[in-house]
Amino acid sequence: MKILKEQFANPQGNLGKLSGLLMQIKDKNQSSWVVANSKVKPKSSVLEVGFGPGLGIESASGFAFEGFVAGIDISDIMLQTATKRNSEKIRQGKVELLKGDVMEIPFEDYYFDLVFSVNSIQYWEDVQESLREIKRVLKDNGEIAIAMHPYWLETEADCIQLREKITKEVQAAGFKNVKANLLYLKPVTAFCIYGLK
Ligand SMILES: C[S@@+](CC[C@H](N)C(=O)[O-])C[C@H]1O[C@@H](n2cnc3c(N)ncnc32)[C@H](O)[C@@H]1O
């Protein structure tokens, strides 16, 4: 179980490929739900942090079909998998995927309309610093969306507590109009925290 947890945090080698497959089964429609409920527009520039196997990138490039979608992930194996999945859009210059850490996003200030992340924040070394780095690359009034399906929690009460903790983190990083959307999955409810710069 510990090995699998480590693989979800930073997938590597064959076990990393396996965890990427599990992410695809678990993620299913979660990323498109996150993007569909955001303020994304056809011409938006979008960044996904921790794209894993690349389903969220695929979905975001469908919504922002006249815009630009970038992604960063710390894992080489996920970069390979997601690059393969999105190869056509990468070739067209509509998608760019890079190896990178949320604490040091390789884009300039005020670049994106939307930065989203699904099932990744629990692995970030310093959440406040990471949220401030996301804020740096967002345009004024740009949107953050941080989603999680905490399937390892046993009760809805634990889930609410975690949701409130992340909501407070997003507020503490200086985002306004912070709200949570819920997605009723098993064994516990998934959530996405949205906020504006
Ligand atoms: C559990 S997977 C989720 C992948 C995908 N978003 C999904 O929901 O299927 C977590 C991903 O976050 C990435 N990750 C973890 N820490 C990160 C960091 N500090 N910066 C960027 N990506 C990170 C991992 O490499 C992994 O691909």
Give a quick summary of the entry.
The protein is of the alpha/beta class and 197 residues long. It has 8 helices and 7 strands; from the N terminus they run αααβαβααββαβαββ.
What characteristics describe this protein?
42% helix, 197 residues, globular, alpha/beta, binds S-adenosylmethionine
Portion of residues in beta strands equals 15-25%
Weakly predicted, low-confidence segments: none
Strand order of the largest sheet: 3-2-1-4-5-7-6
Order of helices and strands: HHHEHEHHEEHEHEE
Number of extended strands: 7
Describe it:
The relative contact order is 0.14. It contains 8 helices and 7 strands; from the N terminus they run αααβαβααββαβαββ. With 197 residues, it is an alpha/beta fold. It is globular, with a radius of gyration of 15 Å. It has a 7-stranded mixed sheet, with helices on both faces. The chain has helices at residues 2-9, 13-27, 30-36, 55-63, 76-85, 87-91, 127-137, 156-172; strands spanning 45-49, 68-73, 95-99, 112-118, 138-148, 176-183, 190-196.
Task: Write the topology of this structure.
Elements: H1 2-9, H2 13-27, H3 30-36, E1 45-49, H4 55-63, E2 68-73, H5 76-85, H6 87-91, E3 95-99, E4 112-118, H7 127-137, E5 138-148, H8 156-172, E6 176-183, E7 190-196
Parallel strand pairs: 1-2, 1-4, 2-3, 4-5
Antiparallel strand pairs: 5-7, 6-7
Helix pairs in contact: 3-4
This protein binds S-adenosylmethionine.
